[in-house]
Amino acid sequence: MEEYEIKEVSEILTEWNPLGDDAKKIKDLNGYRTEAIDIIFHLSINENRKNAENIVMKVLSQAFDLFLTKNECVAPTQKILNVLNKS
């Protein structure tokens, strides 16, 4: 896992901001860095990256008690995969 991957995935999550206005209430959000690391880790152990949307959905839903759908995660997941496919 490279630092640039963490940074770029964090930026994708920040731009998407699945928490919406509630992001301001999370004191240790740290620009979604922790969640970016978790997503990259889970995608790296699932080498074929099958069900990538489910991984993004589960990591974020569990981290923030959200009820994201797979469809909501399609666009950001594609951007994340584009970053990870660079390496």
Topology:
Elements: H1 3-16, H2 33-45, H3 52-64, H4 70-84
Helix pairs in contact: 1-2, 1-4, 2-3, 3-4
What does the model show?
There is one protein chain. This protein is an all-alpha fold. It is 63% helix and 0% strand. The protein has four helices and no strands. It has helices at 3-16, 33-45, 52-64, 70-84.
Main beta-sheet strand count, sense and barrel state: none
The end-to-end distance, rounded to whole angstroms, is: 10 Å
CA gyration radius, whole angstroms: 12 Å
Percent helix range: 55-70%
Tell me the structural class.
mainly alpha
Task: Kindly summarize this structure in a few lines.
The protein has 87 residues and is mainly α. The protein has 4 helices and no strands.
Notable characteristics:
single chain, mainly alpha, globular, 4 helices, 87 residues
